[in-house]
Amino acid sequence: MIDKSGEQLGILSIRDALAIATEKELDLVEVAPNADPPVCRLMDYGKYLFEKQKRERESRKAQKQIEVKELRLRPKTDEHDVQVVINRIRKFTKEGAKVRVRIRFRGREMQHPEVARVLLERVANDTADVATVESMPAFDGNSMIMILAPAA
Q1: Which of 64, 109, 117, 125 is the least buried, fewest Cβ under 10 Å from its Cβ?
Q2: The pTM is what?
Q3: CATH number of 68-150
Q4: pLDDT tens-place string over residues 86-140
Q5: Do 36 and 46 meet the contact criterion of CB atoms below 8 Å apart?
Q6: What dotted CATH number matches 14-62?
């Protein structure tokens, strides 16, 4: 058994260990059940859980969430609107976000996926200085999707 301060108290029976724990107003926690004999520790378990949750919250705060922005186009999107989308991709990637470009098909537009592929390749080429293609254009239901990541 190990004391709260880290000092070893030696091998004790469960009854003796529980008596010491209640005397010091601490909890008896089994830390190595597979050891022979099992290792227990005296600690304030509620305080331990609180500090563990506090450390987890701090580590989550330190993590940087990568945001994924989505821009939608159609196969018949006009030239000016494509330029607006390209400018928005530039803005989002400079901010560090990934961009999902989705071209949605309706009705007979599904018969000509090459139009969308050409459009997505053009967008990728026009933004090559600020973004790299993370996933090539692929179908997802009735739309074609390409993901762009900020260039390193």
Answers
A1: 64
A2: 0.58
A3: 3.30.110.10
A4: 999 999 999 889 999 999 999 888 898 899 999 999 999 999 999 999 989 888 8
A5: no
A6: 3.10.20.80
> Does residue 38 have a cis peptide bond before it, meaning omega lies within 30 degrees of 0?
no
Helix (H) or strand (E) holding 51: helix 45-62
The string of pLDDT tens digits covering residues 1-38 is 777 777 888 888 888 888 988 998 999 988 888 888 88
34: number of Cβ within 10 Å: 6
* Alpha-carbon span 152 to 149, nearest angstrom: 9
Q: How far apart are CA 8 and CA 20, in angstroms?
A: 13
How is the chain split into domains, by residue range? Answer: 14-62, 68-150
> Could you identify the residue written with the tokens 């091998």?
11
For residue 102, give both structure tokens.
């989705």
The pair of three-digit structure tokens given for residue 15, joined into one six-digit string:
């009854």
